[in-house]
């Protein structure tokens, strides 16, 4: 039996909204049509997926299992469509995601030079979407900054660099040559400390106020506006100069690390070839501040 992806999308919408009406509005279909499609899916699978009452719509145990399995299946289907749309009869396209501060030009160029028939495109990401773009097919490979959820990914550690702190130029600590992280414990951090779990919990408690930003430009705008500090990889200081902002080396924290990742289900030989090129060229082409990182086993 083949599972109808459209019916699965309808089911997921109901499961996530817990409302037939809200799901119908989201899907731009009439509610009776949605109800018929869901009942047809239940008949095809031979199980009841939803319990409906005047209190709302809830998942049965079978529904919870189908939801868990449906989400990656639908992501894979969307990724298939995106990747197919990037491929022509003559040329294939490798889309490379990268985080702020990373320079991937040399690695992408080497791949194209050694793989006739392939072109490369790039897409910049953030901590919010650096993993998502790999799962949904927006990118084929990604240069990711740790930490990130590596579930469903094939990850190769590449490089590490020192961390620096970005301060407004007139900040009381800006005249120091180096800063200890313990001297920053009362400063608003312009990121969730969960993004740096290896050390933030000791010195930068997550209970204090802060602002979560979506890009490096936003982060530095907040630093310039005296709304907080930013702790970033040293490569950021060269690529994002600001007259109101200074960067100072930071002591007491581990290095910022970078890995290359792709969706674990993808095993194309070109991905393996790109991984080998990245390992060869990552240091120093990602940036002058990087050194080789080999995790302890």
What is the spatial order of strands in the main beta sheet?
4-3-5-11-6-12
How do the SSEs run, as a string of H and E? HHHEEHEHEHEEEEHHEHEEHE
N-to-C CA distance: 44 Å
How large is the count of helical segments? 10
CATH class wording of the largest domain: Alpha Beta
The helix content is: 25-40%
Overall average residue pLDDT: 86
Name the CATH architecture of the largest domain: 3-Layer(aba) Sandwich
CATH homologous superfamily title of the largest domain: Periplasmic binding protein-like II
Count of the separate structural domains: 3
Quickly list its features.
297 residues, alpha/beta, Arc Repressor Mutant, subunit A, D-Maltodextrin-Binding Protein, domain 2, 3 domains, 6-stranded mixed β-sheet, 4-stranded mixed β-sheet, 10 helices, transcription regulation, DNA binding, transcription, LysR_subst-bd
Could you describe the 3D structure shown?
The protein has ten helices and twelve strands. By secondary structure, it is of the alpha/beta class. The strands form three sheets. A six-stranded mixed sheet has the order 4-3-5-11-6-12. It is globular and about 70 Å long. The mean pLDDT is 86.
